[in-house]
Predict the 3D structure of the following.
Amino acid sequence: MKRIIALLMAILMMSVVFVGCGSTADATKDEAAASDLDYITEKGTLVVGITDYAPMNYKDDNGEWTGFDTEFAQAVGEKLGVEVEFIEINWDNKFLELDSKSIDCIWNGMTITEEATLNASVTNPYVENAQVVVMTADKAKDYKDAESMKDLSFAAEAGSAGEATISDNGWANYTAVKAQSDALLEVASGSSDACVIDITMANAMTGEGTSYENLVQALKLNTEQYGIACRKDSDLTAKINEIMATLMSDGTLDALAEKYELALVK
Amino acid sequence: MFWEVTLNLLKGFGVTCEVFALTLLFALPLGLIISFGSMSKFKPLKLICKVFVWCIRGTPLMLQMIVIYYGPGLVGKWAQGIENPGAIIAWLASWTVFDRFVAVLVAFIINYACYFSEIYRGGIEAIPVGQKEAGQVLGMKKSQLFFKVTLLQVIKRIVPPMSNEIITLVKDTSLARIIAVYEIIYAGERFIKAEGLIWPLFYTGAFYLIFCGVLTLLFGYIEKKLDYFRG
């Protein structure tokens, strides 16, 4: 009797250890080596790992997810013919989430870093974030790098990332202005040699067809590019790249970039 | 604003309470079973239990949660990469992650059951052998001995160490956010990112304090109630 009880308890212990392993998946799944893309289309949902991060993914007043990446992912999901499901993850565990198939991709304004490319298969960059040095076209010819710019006078918005970039580079001759548009005005009027502003702003307000036709982006600083991370060796990466190219050419992404004030990587 | 924050935190606190209550519900009996195992005279079972308790008490709960949640999925992915799978590999390949909340519960239940089992063992082994012998002389069966002589005394003795462990459990639930389960700390931290408010995070402390305060009073009451029972 005692032996039997002991044995039953041993079995119970084992089952406790393995309770975590009970799988909900259909064990009769065809062959194991099916591609990642097939896996996603078969289950009919693309599970996207996000964090609450405006303007990429955030909740609107009705508590629904919105943002650049949200709409972008939904557009891609539509082309793939699958539902898109957004799951909030702990950003520290993003690659664990991906590898354990808890999510299918990380799509949340993720900067393409070495960490990302080592741990996942990353798509082509789609949005760019950078601080750019803007100056007049004739001056820009003579100043190609940060070192040569050290004697110029700069303008930037007080408290902006551009201001931080100026001090990071040790550019001493600098004026703080109220807004990024004021910084541009400083340069256009000639009271400063150059200004440092966001790339989105620079794209929208300088160059041909804008009010500052004679200003150009002389140098990009602190460039970050955003990409989407899929599982390593996944064929989803190529598919997203393909769909992304289509959405770029048909203007869908341009409209989104304008709506959320972001700069696309062209 | 204050109301909005409070409502949001209460939502998170609900999850905290759920983890707490369900963990207790399952870990209390499971701990007793493990404690019997580690006191068993059947050596292999005793060894299994001891090693199991060592592994669980010897690793951080945070790590256990990560292993339990991500582990099956990672094993499944690894097994799917193997060519010409045998029956076992094919079975492993079907492993997937399960619900986050379930993973948290499994981790907490196993972890706390191990701690509880040692408290039970201490309580049971503290009962003088003479009582057991007296019971045997009176012709009591083993089960009668346990339920009618030992158990009530054990309960009285283990209330203080158990209350300690249970209060720790209240606060340990905050670890659940590691695998993105929306508990109260997670709810509080959200306000920092989404709204730039830091005070909701500190405000969560009030919820824990009140909950632990209630538990402390409850345990004080239980101890008093059991006081007539001098072991």
